Amino acid sequence: MTLKLSVIGCGYLGATHAACMSSLGFEVVGIDTDQGKVDLLSKGELPFYEPGLDTLLAAEMKTGRLSFTTDFSAVADADVHFICVGTPQSKDGLAADLTYVKSSVAAIAPHLKEGSLVVGKSTVPVGTAQLLRDQLATSAPQADLAWNPEFLREGFAVEDTLTPNRLVVGVANDRAEEILKEVYKPVIDLGTPWIRADLPTAELVKVAANSFLATKISFINAMAEVCEAAGGDVTVLAKAIGYDPRIGSRFLQAGIGFGGGCLPKDIRAFMARAQELGADQALEFLREIDAINLRARQRVIDVVRADLSEDLTQYKIAVLGATFKPDSDDVRDSPALDIAAQLQAAGAQVVVHDPKGIEPARKRFPNLDYQEKVVDAVKGADAILHLTEWKEYRELDPSVIGQLVKSKFLIDGRNMLDRNMWRAAGWRVHALGRTD
Ligand code: UDX
């Protein structure tokens, strides 16, 4: 008999997982405490932007296999329960806030049927899975718990779920592994590497992977600082070191650094957990990674000040991009928005454009000025800051934009624009980490 699945938490991760598991042929119920989110998803509509997921969700709703509810008792029918709730940074420190993980496991415990498996997917501090498993042993001894971290990237969520580059499962026994193999059979059959680990290792794999990625980005941004000081070009440097397969060319894009709902909070939570474990020295370097990352934002503000004036009150700055990366409407810890808000706090008149992120950005920073069209955002600007590398910005015509601004000054915070083309149209261009 085919397994039935439940997905607890229908945010970015959960909604994607639910729709993808349904597309593999499983009956899936998604549960979320937010009635508004459940209503939207039940209509086959996404509460956020993710390329490809909208059509998949709509198609899966039509099959009748996929449903959403706020009622936790709906898990009673399911055999495998994926915990996909958020673990944000806590308000009073660096550690992850585990409130939602703990409350969702407690909420499903009374409804779990004999032999069911609870599978954590949320990113948690190492040790959480064992703690939850011990709790379940008392509250729902008929159930077991495993950990199966996700590695999905926003913008590629469906692809990363259905054709991941590996599947990692943290299990305490063979039975849990067998159940997960049954769930992921179609993915395993594609040749996806399968890694069985113990619970703590599975939890650590996720934060280790994100720490490595963050380190790569901050490494190249540190090189950008040195290139600026020494008269070098970080893009050429990145290209040259990237040809060494031991280094690899990906995630060496220098600019204003990383943001989003994962990398910043994950490296901080990892440091906080290491401290609790007495291993803080091992992760001391992550403090520097975080500092380099935040410094990249400050460097843009320094360039603006050095070029325009220390006092920005008389200047209008157009910011292109609000989301933390392109092809997403996510503005969580977005470097672009942070820079926009800091410039506004310094007295500048800041106008922000983004193809998808204006509404989420407005919720976070209601006092910034937003424009739906680039041509309206740049009107009369003393400087244009390219801070999120949407394709639309690479297609801008510098001559057309040049007729709208007050001063033809461009800062490329992502090193993605063709600066020769902009210069040929009479622009002064400053690209981070490039001195010429
Ligand atoms: C990340 C991980 O990649 C993913 O595996 C994990 O599951 C969740 O966290 P995501 O947050 O979607 O995914 O974004 P990612 O594509 O990793 O980019 C993170 C940030 O780094 C973005 O702000 C991006 O602009 C920045 N970045 C990325 C750079 O500044 N330079 C690079 O070379 C690459």
Question: For the terminal residues, how far apart are their CA atoms?
Answer: 66 Å
* Biggest sheet features: 6 strands, parallel
The average pLDDT score comes to: 97
Q: What is the level 1 CATH name of the largest domain?
A: Alpha Beta
User: Helix content range of the residues, please?
Assistant: 40-55%
CATH topology of the largest domain: Rossmann fold
Spans of 5+ residues with little confidence (pLDDT < 50)? none
**Spatial order of the strands forming the largest sheet:** 3-2-1-4-5-6
**Number of helical segments?**
18
Overall strand count:
14
CATH architecture of the largest domain: 3-Layer(aba) Sandwich
Query: What ligands does this structure carry?
Result: uridine-5'-diphosphate-xylopyranose
User: What spatial form do the alpha-carbon principal axes imply?
Assistant: globular
Over the alpha carbons, how many angstroms does the gyration radius reach?
23 Å
Could you name the CATH homologous superfamily of the largest domain? NAD(P)-binding Rossmann-like Domain
* Secondary-structure class: alpha/beta
Strand content: 5-15%
Number of domain units: 2
Active site: 262
GO molecular function: NAD binding; UDP-glucose 6-dehydrogenase activity
InterPro entries: 6-PGluconate_DH-like_C_sf, NAD(P)-bd_dom_sf, UDP-Glc/GDP-Man, UDP-Glc/GDP-Man_DH_C, UDP-Glc/GDP-Man_DH_C_sf, UDP-Glc/GDP-Man_DH_dimer, UDP-Glc/GDP-Man_DH_N, UDPglc_DH_bac
Keywords: NAD, Oxidoreductase
